[in-house]
Amino acid sequence: MQAVLEHSPPAGATALNQTKVRGKRTGLLLLSPSVLLLLVWSIVPLVMTLWYSVQNYNLVDPTLHGFAGIDNYWYLLTDPDFLHSLLNTFILVAGVLLISVGGGTLLAVLYDQEFFGRGIARIMVISPFFIMPTVSALLWKNLMLHPIYGVYSAMMRAVGLTPIDWLARFPLLTVMMIVAWEWLPFAVLILLTAVQSLDGEQREAARMDGAGPIARFRYIILPHLGRAISVVVMIETIYLLTIFAEISVTTAGGPGVASTNLAYLIYSRALLQFDVGGASAGGVIAIIIANIVAIFLVRAVARNLEA
Amino acid sequence: MALKTKTSTRIGVTILGWGIALWLFFPIFWMILTSFKSEVQAISTPPKLFFMPTLSSYGEVFERASYWHFALNTVIVSVGATAIAVALAVPAAYSMAFLPSKRTRGTLLWMLSTRMLPPVGVLVPIYLLARNTHLLDTCTGLAVVDMLTNLPIIVWMLYTFFREVPAPILEAGRMDGATRWQEMTMVLLPLALPGIASTALLSLILCWNEAFWSLNLTSSHAAPLTAFIASFSSPEGLFFGKLSAASTLAVAPILVFGWISQKQLVRGLTFGAVK
User: Can you cite an annotated GO cellular component (chain B) (predicted)?
Assistant: First the structure.
């Protein structure tokens, strides 16, 4: 690559036209390593997944092979576990979105107000986002929610209630709470940045005109946050569709399939049952769902690229 | 802020702001606190807020759990993946920011779309490819996957930073006879260094906390901290002191990085859509 760079013409020595052509070629050469890698990375695994999804392929049963047609898809779509995991996936995504975006919007407005020690309070609120998923999951499972030793259980006992074994009684809801704890700070971080870019004079003017805090929130802050909120929703959705570590560490998808989402189902089909074909069919479905969301995200970002 | 807010409102906001902050931060605070307890103190009921701090849990994590082995894996994978990704992304972002063509916009959006591929959708092929090339349970294999998943974000973030460097400065350099290579290394890089640094930091944070591929592509040899902590999901996790000490060590560097760079991270996390 360096050799090519040295070929760039010294300024003024060549005609403008030639410089342009060279510039184009240099640009392409500088860009190509990243583009080629990403091209391979995005196409090869995708094609392999599609291929495996129409094959009979089990790592522990070599006698089973050959073209399967749509059998893998058929088994998956008629499997109640799959439908349950699909439902769980949507509940998890919707629940976490509701908590993190709703709460995040309100908290962004709150931490935009000036108060004593605001800087430190903000840092504390944002912190959970930087905790690795396995730590957050175990932190909640053991230190907070453990039915005997957990702090929350101790608090419940202190006020005369019987502690609840959260992960056994409400596995999906508890996983949702843990994930929401990780993603609420993300929403606050992004939305707070967006709120702060709001023109101070505009807000001041509304206040002078006698608009109360609720009216100001509804008619000035919320419209301004519109695009930031949509970006947060889409980015979170992409990540939330494939929540894995939190489930793997806390409930392992159980009891039964009570907290199994699509990602965990595919993992257990592939690496616990070695059913490559079935897991790949699940993978294709996950890719289709993610792509539907991705189309909207790419559009939202594309609009911003014009500016 | 020309108008005065009512004192009662201000007190209310202060209480609410601090109350929510303390509540959300409490699990982290409790984890750090528990890491300085002995195992007996850690599971005492009711939980103790005041106690004689001890470093015994940390001692155990270092002695018995070979913490350094996992920490080293995390550092190798995150730093390696970040270094390669930035090295690839700087020329790409330079090309798109300063030598744009008709296809630049489409290329950028296509790169973004590759990031949307759900990892679980390609778990099977990546696992089999890693197994067949003997990259399963190696730092190299994990670093390559981390590098490729983060490359689009890094190109994007660098692109938005490079766009802020005024093109005339680069052109002036070229007039003085600088080659493209010199232009990039001697003019652009110093100017964009803060941007490159925060881009690298975001990549480090994402790699450090990456759990899906870590759990699925490594077992013991190349297991990073995310996978090491996951091993506490066994009954061993009930040694609260040890769990807390290992967790505190695993998250401390990233927590500090995150605090320092929160402002710049927004740009990378939203592909420049929110600044």
Answer: plasma membrane
Q: Do A110 and B22 touch (CB under 8 A)?
A: no
Question: Cβ(A246)–Cβ(A175) under 8 Å?
Answer: yes
Q: State the Cα–Cα distance between residues B88 and A80, nearest whole angstrom.
A: 45
Q: Which tens digits make up the pLDDT trace of A120-142? A: 999 999 999 999 999 999 999 98
**The dihedral sign for the CA sequence A183, A186, A191, A196:** positive
Q: How many domains does chain B have?
A: 1
Q: Kindly report whether the global pTM for this prediction surpasses the value 0.95.
A: no
**Contact residues for A287 (Cβ-Cβ < 8 A; gap 6+):** A46, A49, B117, B118, B121, B122
- The answer to the question of residue B26 being in a domain is no
CB nearest to A6's CB, from B179, B238, B263: B179
**CA dihedral sign, ordered A197, A199, A204, A205:** negative
In a domain, B263, yes or no: no
**C-alpha of B123 from chain center:** 21
Q: Is B175 a domain residue?
A: yes
Report yes or no on B266 lying in a domain.
Answer: no
Chain B positions touching A111 (Cβ under 8 A) are 17
For residue range B87-99, what is the model confidence (pLDDT) as tens digits?
A: 999 999 999 988 8
Closest CB to A132 among B123, B250, B271: B250
- Asked casually if ipTM beats, i.e. exceeds, 0.90, the reply is no
Hey, where are the domains in chain A?
11-53, 71-306
Question: For chain B, how many helices (H) and strands (E)?
Answer: 13, 0
CATH number of A71-306: 1.10.3720.10
DSSP assignment letter at A144: I
Least CB–CB distance from A189: residue in B34, B128, B262? B262
A247 Cβ contact list (under 8 Å, min separation 6):
A175, A253, A259, A260, A261, A263, A264
Q: Which two tokens stand for residue A65?
A: 């092979």
Residue-wise pLDDT for B199-212, tens only, equals 898 899 889 999 99
The CATH code of the domain that includes B87 is: 1.10.3720.10
The letter for the amino acid at B273 is: A
- In the chain, the amino acid numbered B43 is I
Report whether pLDDT(A13) > 70.
no
